[in-house]
Description:
By secondary structure, this protein is an alpha/beta fold. It is built from 15 helices and 12 strands.
Amino acid sequence: MKVAFLIHSLEGSSCRYRVLQYLPYLKQKGVEASVHFYQRRWLDKLKFYRTLGHYDILYLHRKLFHPMEFWVLRRKASRIIYDFDDALMYRSSSSEEPYSFSRRMKFAYLVRRVNFVIAGNQFLRSEVLPYNPRVEVIPTSIDLSLYHLKESSSREGPLTIGWLGSGSTLKYLKPMIPIFETIYKKGQNIQLKIVCDQFLDSPILPVIKKRWSLEEEEADLKSFDIGIMPLKDDLWSRGKCGLKILQYYSVGVPVICTPVGVNRDMVEDGVNGFWAQNEEQWEKGLMTLIQGEKRRREMGLRGRRVVEEGYSLLVNAPRILDVLNRVFSPRGESS
């Protein structure tokens, strides 16, 4: 089976976690996988599209195409799988109006015409079903061979509340700063660590600003005592696939999150983390974990088990292979 994976880049976290990390397993199982990149110029696009007849499956990651371009692509590719992990049919949380006719039109046109859709969570699956019944949820997964449990969190010095993410999601962290400052002013020895390519400041709270790098990601995660994933409760956020939580859990760090979308599935309130929807709940959850070293350790270990059981590469790589086999088989999915 020859599969062409079409992605945005090698560096993007979505590309790495939803495509690239599966390739060694797929190749081990006999899949001839090759990686290609979305092109800007029409000449380059058409040059690649003319080669699609050499592949059994075209695996599209995340991009929404103009219907005219997708019509060309559909004519050239024998079978297409579409994988996505964001609510691309809506505008982002930064927009006052979430609904977009052009986004919805592109999304509907595409998913109606592909052979199979892999959605990152149940909300995204529900958005596909009106147009195509051939859809399955395969969550974003973590390669646990790259992440190891942190040592005991007992140590001298300030306790670290950690946040790791992209600059585009800092808008969710910014409203949290006053809450951290309130806790700090109450005498709690805490600091905030931001791992990103952009940063926030506080006139009161100590803030560690660490530029993200793949090589140091595990060490940065292990430096956290508490991981946080605040979100806005909107349509865009419901499409998010909880990568931050999986990363925190992978090293045994407990989580406090906004219970939106897949966050509700990953975090069981009071068991492996806490839900927080307002300032009072955020402060209560943070204070509980700040003052309870044993609680932090127990919740972090339970979080690691969540990844092991449902969100690991070991669990979900065979599911990706199964979809490829079903689409490739003459008795499998068809458009």
